[in-house]
């Protein structure tokens, strides 16, 4: 870890001045620099000219819908984007995630959770390298040899189970939507077959989690997808 | 070069065949050459077999004819008693159609398909009863002799000399799913008759000598065998169609038969029908309505002919034209007809010469590629042309009086002017009178006037007067010529008049149809359409109209529309309902419920029946095909208008609800946004403050406020019907964990257990809503139990009840008896003394569960504590493909 003070810049695109101020206070308190935009159009211009390190985007913008802002942004940029939405907007969240958002947060949110998500997002951008192995809990994975052990004992995974685990681990900390997983593992025709996922996830948890009924690592994002998380 | 591509019509027909068969009952016909071959016996044996295999079989009607071996077969089979009807003092037992329909067996046995019902029954013929049973999805076993088959009736009459009155349309047999030929050699059958097994006593001997002659039986047997063979052949063809339509090339044959008012046309129709069946070709019956007027008798014969053709599945075309041959060829070309069938007419050679050859000659000259079959006619029976001439149109007595008075007047005038003009010119007066009469009176009076004037002239004016004698040759010649001219001119003007009247009628009809169409197109509402239609029917047919539309409250029932111009009683309503349900015409002029006062037509818009139309003619009368056709067009127009109206109102309603939904959503979203944004700011800000007693209070208060706002918004969504489920396959464990995570603050410091059996099936639900419902239940448990009480979250599946359940239980004080019934009511609070809470949580949980087609229950546990359970329907996801 380098000691040089790294102060990432975050662009907040939200029409509510109170939320912007709140975010500014929270983020600046944690050592981020903050830029604000009160509309989607302005936000896109800011993103293009100022090149921030991350964007926090509200889905409910009055001028251009947040999802449209995201799609236009994704046409030219891989900047990490965190979506803000309210409870009950599951369809919008899924659409945003499918369109390339990196993570989402439901209002009302705690400051701690926001910072954690933001840091995780930035960390993923910095560590691009593929790892040859990793571990969580008492599980050890060697990607190069395709070997998984739990508490030292080898675990036998089917190809699909292994694929599911690998997909979530590679994007650890990030939500992967059902659609994304199904497309990746079963092909575009199976995008609606969520029951496949439920079945394989149950198997995977039974093999890798200590308490499959209350999973610690392979978490369900209700109605949206799955996330691998070590917290 | 034959076209080898699959014919789309053939594919469609094949699909229709199989589709229709899925909903219709199956018909099995036990078919034989004559009575006594053992059809009923075979049929009952088959029914017993089905019954012993556990099938729901019912005998609705069997004629045992006192045969004991047959009677014995009935033992043990459930029987629906016949409907006893008294007719002319005799008690007759008929098939109780209503009882069978109400009983709805899987299979019903109905003997003697060709039977004619007692007048007053719903249908004239038993085969129509069977048709209705099949349409209701009930399988039928029935029996039939070959002589009763419509298309074979003529042949049988020629063979046996016995006229067959009771016939069954061939389409019935064609639609049968199975035909079992019950065969016996003529020798065996005659033996059985001799043994008295078929007829009792004397009747046996009489039967053996007449109908059951060995020669007759051999011919009938051949007929029956041939028919069965043809049918097998056809089935084979159909099977081939079903399997691979492209493998065969369809003949593309289409037949046309010219139908007239002659009784001989029936033979022609049957002949064509047989040929069409053999060729597997569709056929058309065409009547060219020439200006020559028909006698009422002829008109009736023509109607009967056309009805027969319709029953034998022909398409009927009635077309008015003077040129019969030209019209036939034109219709044939328009419909891609390959063969035209006409009768060999016994017309007069002179007339044929004048017209340019007989009909056959003229047709053949113009038919081009089309084959023409000329089928020989039977000798003309009945009237000569002259009698026909005399009675072409029935005249009223008033017209005869007019003729008489006119002749009398002319005679007076003649007597007055004779001294100036001489007697020859008087004939011209008479002639003028006869010609003028022709414009006003019918054929009979004209004949009378012509004859009377000739006689009067002769008697009173031609010398020697006061005798009928004529001395001079010129006078005789004059008299003869006068008589001929009077007759011919009188007849010609009369004919002109009739033609003009017919023309006017036709024009009237065309105008009426045009006006109705225009009236409908311009009508702004269904009511206006129907009022226009009622007025048109009144004007055109002098008939009253009743329209029945589908009762919006009870689909399947009809209500009389107020635009009706006659009040239909209950019985008439019944006929209308039958028409509506069976998509077929009924009532007067038909074979179904003919005793009704009105004639009823279904209002069909495509395959969709939107109601029924009743027409009540003023008095006795017939319904000619042309008028029936016009009424059918009326019905179609009205049906289309009603259907269009229905679509328009549905669309309107849809648009309205969409608008209101949009408004609702905007409002709800706006309120939701305005409430949640400040809350978010407070909550997030409070979290960032350093911990302290006041900060903790702010956090708790904010959480409470958030819960309240969420509950109010949820309730509003539920109440407004705006709840849209986003169903997906969910893992019950995930739902419980998610609920637990959202209530982590409420559960802090409590003992929480989860109890989930491994391998729980997936549930198809809106994850967000179900976990909210569970969270509400958890909150409820936390609020109503001391903090020391433990909470257990569990789930399970009840395969037998097709349910999956998720429950929240506590070991607190449990529910009080007075609370039980009202727990899930809105704003009901279990403990009014305790502060806080609106009493919405449980009500929302119930709303969400019910939105999934599930339910919610609360109960006390035997060991103390309460338990709330959400039950959701258990569905099976599509299987997961193996790797």
Chain-wise SSE layout:
The complex is a heterodimer of chains A (231) and B (883).
Chain A: E1 9-13, H1 17-29, E2 33-37, H2 40-50, E3 54-58, H3 66-74, E4 81-86, H4 90-98, E5 103-107, H5 111-126, E6 133-136, E7 139-142, E8 147-150, E9 153-154, H6 159-170, E10 175-177, H7 178-186, H8 194-208, E11 218-221, E12 225-228
Parallel strand pairs in A: 1-2, 1-3, 3-4, 4-5
Antiparallel strand pairs in A: 6-7, 7-8, 8-9, 10-12, 11-12
Helix pairs in contact in A: 2-3, 6-8
Chain B: H1 8-23, E1 27-32, H2 39-52, E2 57-61, H3 68-73, E3 83-87, E4 90-94, H4 97-103, E5 107-110, H5 126-135, E6 139-145, H6 153-160, H7 170-175, E7 178-181, H8 186-194, H9 202-209, H10 214-243, E8 255-258, H11 265-279, E9 283-289, H12 296-311, E10 315-320, H13 324-334, E11 339-343, H14 349-355, H15 359-366, E12 371-375, H16 385-390, H17 397-421, H18 423-438, H19 443-461, H20 473-522, H21 526-541, E13 544-550, E14 558-560, H22 570-582, E15 586-587, E16 599-605, E17 608-616, H23 625-688, H24 693-719, E18 728-730, H25 732-742, H26 744-747, E19 752-755, E20 763-765, H27 767-784, E21 791-798, E22 803-810, H28 841-851, E23 855-860, E24 866-873
Parallel strand pairs in B: 1-6, 1-7, 2-5, 5-6, 8-9, 8-11, 9-10, 11-12, 19-21
Antiparallel strand pairs in B: 3-4, 13-14, 13-17, 15-16, 16-17, 18-20, 21-22, 22-24, 23-24
